[in-house]
Write a structure and sequence with these properties.
- The complex is a heterodimer of chains A (about 200) and B (about 230).
- Chain A is mainly alpha-helical and about 200 residues long.
- Chain A has one domain (about 5-195).
- Helix content of chain A is about 60%, strand content about 5%.
- Chain A has helices at about 15, 20-40, 45-65, 70-90, 105-110, 110-130, 145-155, 160-170, 185-195; strands at about 40-45, 90-95.
- A two-stranded antiparallel ribbon of chain A has the order 1-2.
- In chain A, helix 4 (about 70-90) runs antiparallel to helix 6 and helix 4 (about 70-90) crosses helix 8 (about 160-170).
- A two-stranded antiparallel sheet of chain B has the order 1-2.
- In chain B, about 40% of the residues are buried.
- Chain B contains 11 helices and 2 strands; from the N terminus they run H-H-H-H-H-E-H-H-E-H-H-H-H.
- Chain B has helices at about 15-30, 35-40, 45-55, 75-80, 80-100, 110-125, 130-145, 160-175, 185-200, 200-210, 210-225; strands at about 105-110, 145-150.
- Classes of the chains: A mainly alpha (about 200), B mainly alpha (about 230).
Chain lengths: ~200, ~230
């Protein structure tokens, strides 16, 4: 899976990604590299790409957690929000595909979706590597065409499911019931304390 | 409803209104040279040449507006010819923005841009918040119809033109406010991003536009995001 060169910049990706100039540049690189690898010709709609970013930034700011313990899990969730925004605004279109391609390869089955997933996985991995020294990983489902059939069909009805699918592709446990809700790690211990609190009858 | 704006002072620089007039003539008389034929013979040679230039000669395609020397608002304030520089930059920016928004038929007044800037600068102390200043400039530029069928007036403007005018002004102010120190900047690309962002938040801009504080907030948010 191709990776944008901008990921080697000195500025932390978690900060850079919140600037439209950097997002636009890195996304273009992702598209360009994927086109080179696959021979697919993709067109970018600038207006839709800007709308994608603004939509994502709003969602990012509204979900941003307060607790330090949530920083790491939020990276995956924020990448999922990006995938949701890309699916909703659909800034890519296929101009042409090479003849006789293997449509069981996800990159040819759904080229736009493949680029969106590749970009979001790359962003997720880059932040996790830089900030949390976590090794890059992807799940076998990323190459399974059956998962991609389900992915394409489901996100067409509900783009928020893209958040859960990105978790699946990244080898994490997806939340299929409420994928658009970030679950704070801090809630568990807090709730536990609440239920464990002794009452007057104890 | 927009607040009633004070009358603008007369400009010291004559160059801006003259350029506006020539641009207006060019736009209006961009038809064939025949339009000038009835009067051409009666004109003395120097004026005939001017008439040919602005009226009838086929226009040589021009390169994109020169956007390379854009300054931040504080830089404008510190420059010797601040008003003229702001007006020129705003004119160039608006031309680009209107074109990207699909309305390259509208005229733009460099004079209104210069006067709007000067009016706001006179009302604010040094070091005032750049987003608040920009919101005031927005109010002046939009309120005085910096672009339109007959800039400086509301003649021929419908709601669609009023909205396009407001969005183009917002985009240009965003462009001027963007931080240029964080990355190497291609001005045309950044301005294009500013126009695209503005188009994607058009409802917010139009809703906020009568309110300076809200507008300053939007300018701050989106300039920071670009």
């Amino acid at each position: 899976m191709a990776q944008p060169d901008t990921l080697t910049d000195t500025q932390p990706v978690r900060k850079s990604i919140r600037r439209l100039r950097w997002f636009e540049n890195s996304f273009r690189q992702q598209v360009s590299k994927t086109c080179d690898e696959t021979g697919i010709d993709l067109a970018i709609d600038d207006r839709k790409l800007a709308a994608t970013f603004i939509n994502w930034l709003r969602a990012f700011e509204s979900h941003k957690p307060q607790h330090e313990t949530d920083r790491q899990p939020f990276v995956g969730f924020a990448a999922g929000l990006m995938l949701r925004a890309l699916i909703e605004h659909a800034p890519l279109g296929v101009r042409s595909k090479p003849d006789d391609v293997d449509d069981t390869n996800p990159a040819y089955f759904w080229p736009e979706g493949y680029v969106y997933v590749a970009y979001c996985l790359n962003m997720r991995s880059a932040v996790l590597e830089q900030d949390f020294h976590e090794d890059r990983k992807v799940a076998p489902e990323l190459d399974e065409i059956r998962t991609w059939w389900s992915f394409k069909e489901n996100v067409a009805n509900d783009p928020a499911l893209g958040i859960a699918f990105l978790d699946l592709f990244a080898g994490e446990k997806p939340d299929w019931t409420k994928p658009g809700v970030f679950r704070s790690r801090d809630v568990g211990p807090t709730a536990l304390r609440f239920y464990e609190r002794k009452t007057l009858t104890d | 409803m927009r607040p009633i704006l004070p009358p603008l002072p007369l400009p010291n620089e004559l160059a801006m209104p003259v350029r506006d007039a020539l641009r207006g003539m060019r736009k209006t008389l961009s038809g064939p040279l025949k339009l000038m034929e009835p009067v051409e013979g009666a004109l003395p040679e120097p004026l005939r040449q001017v008439a040919r230039r602005v009226g009838g000669q086929p226009q040589t395609p021009r390169p994109d507006p020169e956007l390379a020397d854009v300054l931040g608002l504080s830089d404008f304030a510190n420059s010797r010819d601040a008003t003229a520089r702001f007006a020129r930059t705003t004119y160039q920016g608006l031309k680009f923005a209107l074109n990207r928004l699909g309305r390259d038929d509208l005229l733009i007044s460099e004079t209104v841009a210069g006067l709007a800037y000067r009016t706001v600068q006179r009302q604010n102390a040094d070091g005032a918040d750049p987003f608040q200043i920009s919101a005031q400039i927005f109010e002046q530029l939009v309120g005085h119809h910096v672009s339109g069928v007959a800039p400086g007036t509301s003649i021929g403007l419908h709601d669609a033109e009023e909205q396009i005018n407001a969005l183009a002004v917002f985009a240009v102010l965003l462009w001027i406010l963007v931080d240029r120190e964080i990355a190497e900047t291609n001005e045309a690309e950044v301005l294009a991003l500013c126009v695209d962002v503005t188009a994607s938040v058009a409802d917010q801009v139009m809703e906020a536009s009568p309110d300076r504080a809200q507008l300053a907030g939007l300018l701050s948010t989106y300039a920071g995001a670009i």
